What does this fold into?
Amino acid sequence: MITLLAGSNALRHVGLKAYLQASRDHAIALSDLTLVEMRKSKALATSRESVRIAAQFPTQLFVLRRTDQILDEHVTCEAATHALFDYDETIQFAALCRRLQTLPPPPGLAEEMAEHEANARLIMSRLADQVAELEPGLVNAARDFTQAELTQIRTVQHIEDSTRRKLLDLLKQTTGSFILQNQDPGRRAPMLLRDAMGLFAFRYSLCMLLYYMEWVRVGRTVGKNLPRRVNDVVDMQIAAMGTFFNGVLSADDNLQIVSNTARRVLRGFGAYVGTDWRPPQPPDTDDGASPDARAADPR
It folds into this structure.
């Protein structure tokens, strides 16, 4: 089965329907923060519109376990990815999708979505606090790399050993900090790199570093406003989770850049990454034209 992590913007993209219609073996997975993004404002109307396409393919729609529930999972092969799915929540979400498409809304749906909205706003507020706290250190870390090193990492071509060691050393630090803050506060024993690479913490740290490295690479000195940066952090979670699967579906170019770069970097480190899925390309035409495949490729 091909499983892609879907960002909230991809759920409304016409390419999503083309992807799901193409094969019953094509599936999408939604992370907890994708659901939060969907519900943070006007949850009932936004969710109804967001799942309009996905609701037509309930057997190809999956919900992942909450991020805090998968921190201890070591994913080193395709079989291990099954531990990332929340099958009970998947069943409940499919039922919710059906109710969202029912007009007039079933009794109790408005109240349920209002509760989801309140929870989503609380989570986004907490994320904003975390971003404001973490960002200075990550930006400074990214600035330790030269433009040549940033280009090597960005293109994943001819990465010098010194650049690779520098990135790995920084990843060890950021992953360790994440684990101590969010996963295992009392941990003192070191962790082997081969074990760390199978953890969400390692992959999320990599995606966050790549995000801020791109800031530095293009010479950005002033970031987006905080709400936009929080949305970007949500995208980095999607990019990190997507490395366990076959990629991401998103209309956001920055997310695609980080996702693709992270997948190549992880493979270079010898970590497990799901097989890349690419939309099928139409056969060459006699007139040499290059048909636009984006309708079936929600990137």
